[in-house]
Each structure stands twice: as structure tokens, then as C-alpha cells.
Amino acid sequence: MTRIRHSVLWYDRFFRYVFVASAALVSLIILAVVFFVARQGFLTFTVVSPWEFLFTTNWNPPANYGAFTFIFGSFAVTVLAICFGGPLGLAGAIFLAKVAPEWVRESLRPATDLFVGIPSVVYGWIGLTVFVPFVREHVNGAGFGLLVAGIILGIMILPTVISVSEDSLRAVSPALEEASYGLGATRWQTLSRVVLPAAAPGLVTAVILGMARAIGEAMAVQMVIGNSPQFPRSLVTPTATLTSEIVLEMGNTPFGSTWNNALFFMAFTLLVLSLAMILVVRLVVRHRGATP
Questions:
Q1: Where in the sequence is the domain holding 192, given as residue range(s)?
Q2: Is the pLDDT of residue 288 over 80?
Q3: Which of 15, 161, 238, 266 is the most exposed place for a label (fewest CB within 10 A)?
Q4: Same structural domain for residues 171 and 99?
């Protein structure tokens, strides 16, 4: 009996050390990536002033490095994606969680999850062959720009928004709904005044995760946004984002040059934005757990 107990304790200690070492290795890899990208990116400011890089729009390497156009483009595309995909995703989640019959839910939920497995280049190709010509014919302009990029990203974030939102809605205690019905409320009054407020932290988490998905997308955006380093004067003006500019230029710049370092700082900016969104999600989840 003592031998078995010692054996179990040995296995427990061994796997505890394995898990701790794995967690430490993952943390070390993440810190190494952040350190490398940050160190290389901040070398930009040995030649270029932070003000020029962050707040001017003249991007003409190797003479000018104003990246505000790309920063603005990334934020604008993300906001448009949330405007398109957020309401649709929340509506789809409400339908699946509270309205659809069980057989419909069992059919649509796997179909929704399949969207995650579609490569981003496929979304980009659909945008290039369907949405760009449509916008060119009916909205004028070249067709490329923030509008089509926002629509494509809005479609791409739907699985994330629907999945997280549906889980949050289904996690609301049935007792709250029963109490609302007991007081004479209708289904829609219960949904709007009881279920949605109770699930609000999870819905906010879904939107933020959708934003993180949108702001880091590269290939689909690169195919439909026009890839022009000009500040967008309208939604159908060709422009660029941080990700599309990195994809377009990283392979053509010598490593260690100011141009290359500027692209690394763009990547660091995206990394910081993504980490910030993850921290916001954690704060929202923590607040949700602390709410009685």
C-alpha cells in the first residue's frame, strides 16, 4: 500500500513539473516574440521621430515613414466589421439560443462552426470577385476600400460572435426567465429586459474577440482594400491597413533597414492592440464572475 502511495505521489510530482515547465516554455516563447518584435521595431526611432511615424500620413520609404494611414485603416476596418458583423452575430446567437427549435439549432450550430475552417483567402476571393464589382457598379469608385474590407471581415467574425454570444445567453439562469414570465412579461420583453442584460458581459466579450479577430486579419483585407498608402477620403477609396502593408512590403525590405524596422513596429503595434483586447476580455470576464 505504501509503495502504491509513493508511486502515485511520484507521478503527481512528475506531471506537475511537466505542466509547470510547459507553461514556463510557452510564456518564454511569447516573451521572446514580444521582445524581438519590440526591439527591432523601436530601432525605427533612431532615424524617424515617433511623431512622424504615428501621426503623419506620408509613407514613401526610404524618405518618409508616416504610418498614420495604416493605423487609421486598421481601426476603421475593425469598426466597420463590428458594425456589420456584431448585430448580425448577436441576432443569430439570440435566434439559436432562445428562439430556434432544437432540431434547427442542432443543424445550424455545426454549420456556423464550419465558417471558422474556411481559409481567409477564400473570403478575400469572394470579396474580390463579388463585392468589389458590385460596389464599383452601384456605389462608384474603384470598388476597393474600407467598405468591402469591412463587409468581408464582418462575415469572417460571425462564427466568433455567434459562438461566444450563444454560450453566454444559454448560461443565463432559467429561473430569471421563469420569474419574468411569472410576472406577465412576453418572450421579447423577457429577452430584452432580463436575458440580454444578464448576458451582457459575455456579449461584450464576444464583440471584443470579434474585434481582435478583425484587426489582425491580413490576407482577406489585402485582397480587397486596394493596398494604396493614401489616407481614405471615403469608404470606397483604396487604402491600406497595418496587416496589409506588412504582407505587401515585408518580403521586399532588407532586414535591419529603417524600412524593415518600421514594418516590425507596425507588427508590434498590432501585437499591443491584440494583447490589450485580451486584457479587456479578462477584465470583463472577471467583472462578470464578481457580479452576483
A1: 68-260+271-290
A2: no
A3: 15
A4: yes
The C-alpha cell at 142 is 474603384
**Among 47, 79, 43, which Cα is nearest to 65's?**
47
Distance (Å, whole) CA 19 – CA 15: 6
The x, y and z cell numbers of residue 159, run together, are 462564427
C-alpha cell at 101: 427549435
- Residue at 56 is within a domain: no
DSSP alpha helix (H) spans, 171-238? 174-182, 187-190, 196-215, 219-224
- The pTM assigned to this predicted structure is 0.82
Same domain (yes/no): 100, 18: no
Look at residue 59 and tell me if it is in a domain: no
Residues 1-41: pLDDT tens digits?
555 555 556 667 777 888 888 989 998 998 898 899 889 88
Number of domains in the chain: 2
Q: How large is the angle between the packed helices 258-290 and 68-94, nearest 10 degrees?
A: 30
Q: Is the peptide bond before 197 cis (omega within 30 degrees of 0)?
A: no
Q: Average pLDDT for residues 222-237, to the nearest whole number?
A: 85
